[in-house]
DUF418 domain-containing protein (Spirosoma fluviale), 459 residues
Amino acid sequence: MEALRAHQSGEVDPAVHPVVQTERIPTLDILRGVALLGILLMNIQAFGLTDASLDQLIRNPHGGNYWLMTLVHGLFENKMRALFSMLFGAGIILFLTKTRSGSGMDAPELFIRRQLWLIVFGLVNAWGLLWPYDILFHYGIVGIFLFPFIRLSPRALLVCAVVAGLIFSGKLYWQFAEQKQKYEKFLPIAALEKKNKKVKLTDEQKEAKSAWEGLVKEHQYDRKADNADVLAMRSDYSTVWAHQASKIKEMEAPSFYQEGIWDILSMMLLGMALFKWGFLSSRLTTRQYIFLAIGGLLVGQAMAWLSMPSHELEVVNFTKYISGASLPVAGVFMPFERAFSSIGWASLVLLAYRAGIGMWLWKALGAVGQLAFTNYLMQSVLCTLFFYGYGLGYFGDLKLYQLYIVVAEVWLLQIVFSLVWLKNFRFGPLEWLWRSLTYGKRQPMRLTEKTSPVTPVLS
């Protein structure tokens, strides 16, 4: 309990060593397991289908696949990733305030090394395993900027999280405003051409027309391009690599630095605040968790379902979406929708855990969460080998509902693997590698191995 109070107050211990089993906070592992498995609910769609084919379900809103996608989108999209980001923020505090090994380095230097290695793992996940929506690369970068924040009070961290969320909303609104501006420049040109079909446009008018028509084309279904995407993803490794390269570059550079960094930053800061308040370590009262579960899910889900028509209209009729809307509701709500919903889901999980319901389930989820790093990359390995052409080549071949059969199989495999592995080892294989690289020496792996004595770090 003294250690936990030190974590929440932000006091830094003068020595550093890798976390041992007795120091783990069970609820963090359980929530991390829930988030890790929940992330696959959304990622599986990108693993197995093209974006265009998913949009076609929205353009033809009927049948079980449409309602399944709508349900998953409303309940879980971005919420589980947000919870994962919150827990990573809590992990920053834990790393910098728990005691570590006598590595000859102080805690901030070890933390920077840890984050730099995480960036390397993220690059391997993106460029080696060809998963364009990797989050490890982004977490590694954002985490480096966040470690000075650990001494802030929970209230100050919450304010910072809200500010970052507002900037993220503002970025999405700015993008919408730029699109609306292109539409407004196009309108008089369209009216001019309607009045006189033989009118000769200036270079500026041609550019404005091309900009808007290109934007509209991006939001229309192109069967030929969609089939080409499927064919490329069912090809050999080098073809898939070349096909995914542009998307990976977009996600790890422009998209991240323009918008994504504020999304991750806001959720990590919120996680740091929640950890210091004791929320993530199950230190609130049952009444408080009930209030947060009901309030968080009501507010978050209300935002999710209110923004759904805006999201669908953007896909179905982009011109009507831009011309008729004064505010991109889905984009503006996004950071707050996911924050409220994630807190609600986490509260619900903690209430069930506190009630002692299904303790076997919490043990399983805790094991998955303890091996979250290994399991995250395992999902990339399993799904790319199942769907991509250099594996089994099922990309674009399954219906949406069939993808969730794959999800259930991956979940089962990861639960069994995690439980069996932890019967013999302290860490997951990649957790062990990450720690060994961070500390610059091999860490004890088996439960029977002796740990190194704690020694002070250099000042």
The chain has 19 helices and no strands.
